[in-house]
Amino acid sequence: MSLPFYIHAMGWALPGNVFDDEFLHREVGLEKGPDWNRSRLGIHKRRSVLSRDYVRDTKNADPSKAVAHARALGETPVSLAVRAAQQALETARVSPAQIGLVVANGDTPFDFLPTLANSVARILGVGDGPHVDLNSACSSFARHMKFVADLAEEARPEFILTIQSSAYTTRTDYSPKSIDGYIWGDGAAAQVCSKHPAGLRVEPMVFGTSPKDADTIVVDSCGHFRQDGAAVREFSIRKTVEMFEAVAGAKGLYAEDVYTVSHQANAVMQDSILGHLRLPPARHLRNVAEQGNIAAAGAPSVLAQNWNRFRKGDQIVYAVLGAGLAWGGGYMEKV
């Protein structure tokens, strides 16, 4: 049986390079243009581990070279994860030595070994533990929350560090007809979890996958990201609506009383979800328009950026989706 737990603090990190619409249209040469972007995505800035010069000059034709370029700049999924984790630990006033378990994703690895979890643990100075990568692409935050909740009470360390970090721009095609160039950004998020009451009480309630739809989103080891955009969009909206309704029904919630956060795929898709559920826009938290789709770190980075706005008793429903296809959601409450 899943056991609720607490997030004592959250952190987030973004790389320094900004790809705004003007850069993508005029310098990189993406052809869809601002009107298409406004009506289909509503994303206007993205952060990348790649330099503007590199993307402008190469269009990222060879993702393996992009990884080498980002590594030379010192911007990697590991470096982003470390920065997000340091912020979360500092806010929680927890030292790395107190962390007994690190759980991370790793869907755009620069190194297949060591794992992201062990790499971050080494840099932070976390001691031995059953540190593990647990990857469910853009739904990894929900998977990590469910994993922590499913741990037997005697198996839970006092503090657990969960991390989501991705660098999808290294796998993005920036040739003129690209759609994905408008979508992706890079970033990381981290959470300090504990069995001790503080921060947000977390109750994961949903997680599932649909293997028959696995090929609708693909990132191979050295190629570009590719997806069946129409199928993924339809699935994402439908599943998000279902998860919000399931959590709200189980907890007896009303839309006007709760904060909601969903996968930060794009702003137009989120508007559709708000319309389906008649959710108050002011209480739907998001950041995708200003930092792009940063995959698994999207939804938790929204929560981290809004951490100080939550007051005792505030309720949050979260729902995220990713490749697999996978989906997960649950309930949080400020204690």
Write the layout of secondary structure elements.
Elements: E1 5-13, E2 17-20, H1 21-28, H2 33-40, E3 45-48, H3 52-58, H4 63-73, H5 77-92, E4 99-104, H6 116-124, E5 132-133, H7 140-150, E6 159-167, E7 186-194, E8 200-209, E9 217-218, E10 226-227, H8 229-251, E11 259-262, H9 267-277, E12 284-285, H10 288-291, H11 298-305, E13 315-322, E14 326-334
Parallel strand pairs: 4-5, 4-6, 11-12, 11-13
Antiparallel strand pairs: 1-7, 1-8, 2-3, 6-7, 8-14, 9-10, 13-14
In short:
With 335 residues, the chain is an alpha/beta fold. Helices cover 35% and strands 24% of the residues. It has two domains: 190 residues, 3-Layer(aba) Sandwich (Peroxisomal Thiolase, Chain A, domain 1); 135 residues, Peroxisomal Thiolase, Chain A, domain 1, CATH 3.40.47.
Properties at a glance:
single chain; 335 residues; alpha/beta; Peroxisomal Thiolase, Chain A, domain 1; 2 domains; 10-stranded mixed sheet; two-stranded antiparallel sheet; 11 helices; 14 strands; 35% helix
